[in-house]
Amino acid sequence: MRRRRGRAVSGVLLLDKPTGVSSNQALQTARRLLNAAKAGHTGTLDPLASGLLPLCFGEATKVSQFLLGADKTYRASARLGVTTSTGDSEGEILRERPVVVTAASMAAALAAHTGDLLQVPPMYSALKHDGECLYALARRGETVERPARPVHVSRLDLLRLDETGFDVDIDCSKGTYVRSLIEDIGEALGCGAHMTALRRLRVGALDVGQALTLESLRTIADRDPQALDACLVPIAAALAHLPHLELDPHDAASLQRGQALVLGQPLTDGWVAVFTRQQAFVGMAEAVDGRLLPRRLVSQQDDLVAPTSDLA
After folding, report:
1. Which of the 8 DSSP states describes residue 309?
2. Which residues contact 189 (CB under 8 A, 6 or more apart)?
3. Where are the alpha helices (DSSP H) in 59-196?
4. Which residue pairs from 220-227 have beta carbons closer than 8 angstroms and sit at least 24 positions apart in sequence?
5. Is the pTM of this model over 0.70?
6. Average pLDDT, the chain
7. Which of 54, 111, 165, 293: CA 20 to 30 A from 232?
8. Which of 16, 46, 88, 184 is catalytic?
9. Is the dihedral of CA 126, 131, 136, 141 positive or negative?
10. Strands 149-161 and 165-172
11. Distance between CA atoms of 308 and 303, rounded to whole angstroms?
12. Is 302 a catalytic residue?
């Protein structure tokens, strides 16, 4: 039997990923620094992009899907008048057009791309077709049909507009491709556009202002490797954007044993973060027709207690 390598650490690391580094490269670097036995990220952030990348360690990997599905905030920069093969500055220039954009036409374009949208995923994406990533097909010059998918953009705030391009802050649902959104806005303006920079500012209740860089993690590790554990956010704090429920010790124990619960209170169908009355995180359950079904439970350890910080 092969022995597991690394320590059994649990929690979520808020990493400020730099540009030029893939999400997996950032994950593996952080994992080595923490000497963690088990780790995973919460959805990829393109090498071109920087910003918040929550990394899950140990028991937190059981709830990574709930961070993947959280709403997100981005800050994007775009160049007007030029469309590229990838929708960003790394692609080949496909077309150049004159730029005649006013504040009024930009406001109208942003308004038209706010709310519920149908978005066609770009060929340069990690989505799979017949088991192969779309970007691999695109690099071979192949194009396949991609069905449009519903996404929601709740906010588009213009930060800068000039004859060369614009900057915008975006609040959006999971599955939103900012590159495609920028391209669509460019087409609505009649001149085309491509993304030149992207920074993720928020994932659910987590903010990039609380994140650490790889350089700061290395500095901490050089000084005291054990101090890195204090950099991990408790699992409960990372799920603060979800509905939560407190259970008495008897019901919490029953749920931990895999038993469904019928509680004397109304429950809205959907996922629920479950805690004990002492604020220990039990795990994720699903409310279905008035019953609470255990789904993603965590081992009860001291480091899984919900914090009292403003993240909770």
Report:
1. S
2. 80, 101, 105, 106, 109
3. 64-68, 103-112, 134-139, 178-189
4. 221/33, 225/33, 225/35
5. yes
6. 88
7. 293
8. 46
9. negative
10. antiparallel
11. 13
12. no
